[in-house]
Amino acid sequence: MVVTHKDVAELLIKNKTIALFQSSSESGPRALGNRSILHNPANPVGKEKVNIVKKRESFRPFAGTVLQEHAHEWFDFGKLKDSPFMMYAIPVLKNKKNLIPCIVHVDGTCRVQTLQRKINENFYDLIKEFYKLTNIPILFNTSFNLAGFPIVQTVTDAIKIVKKSTIDYLYLPEQKELI
Question: What is the residue extent of each domain of the chain?
């Protein structure tokens, strides 16, 4: 069965935790949509659920990936235009905090990645489908690894990590497959 971005967005709305594996691995300190664990940012207990999945400390902040064209509607970027590499903790607008509690840190910020379609079409299109269904142009996004393990590099690694964890699904958008 062919799986669409909409199918995956519907699972995220049901608060399923989904690992995303596609293309080549990112370089640098952040998950930017090729090796990511995704969750519904509106889930008030999602942070705790993903901390259990990743086996990590509860105080660590999580990140959100937002469609570039909606970023300033959700976050106070100040003088920044964007944050494509998830390098900044940016204040969440007061009227939006309660809509995305899963990615708001105790100080009211979120480590934000702004995303343009030309940078990562599959990830962008998945977030866009989630937005169409929820009016939230953001997904909770963290690196596809567990505490003490490196970020996955192969599909075999990805399947092993999913089996070792409580991740609900592995999404391979290039193959249009959900495992």
Answer: 5-23+34-178
CA distance 61 to 125: 25
pTM above 0.85, yes or no: yes
Q: How far apart are CA 26 and CA 178, in angstroms?
A: 21
Question: Phi and psi of 170, rounded to 5°?
Answer: -115, 120
The gap from C-alpha 136 to its chain's centroid, in whole angstroms, comes to 13
What confidence tens digit (pLDDT) does each residue in 96-127 have?
A: 999 999 999 999 999 999 999 999 999 999 99
Q: Can you name the CATH fold of 5-23+34-178?
A: DHBP synthase (3.90.870)
**110, burial (CB in 10 Å: exposed 0-12, middle 13-18, buried 19+):** buried
CA dihedral 96, 66, 10, 98 (to 10 degrees): -10
Q: In whole angstroms, give the CA distance from residue 97 to residue 74.
A: 9
**Assigned token pair, 179:** 């495992």
Helical residues (DSSP H) of 76-139, grouped into ranges: 121-134
Q: Which ranges of 15-77 would DSSP assign to H, the alpha helix?
A: 46-54, 71-74
pLDDT in tens, 6-29: 999 999 999 999 999 999 887 766
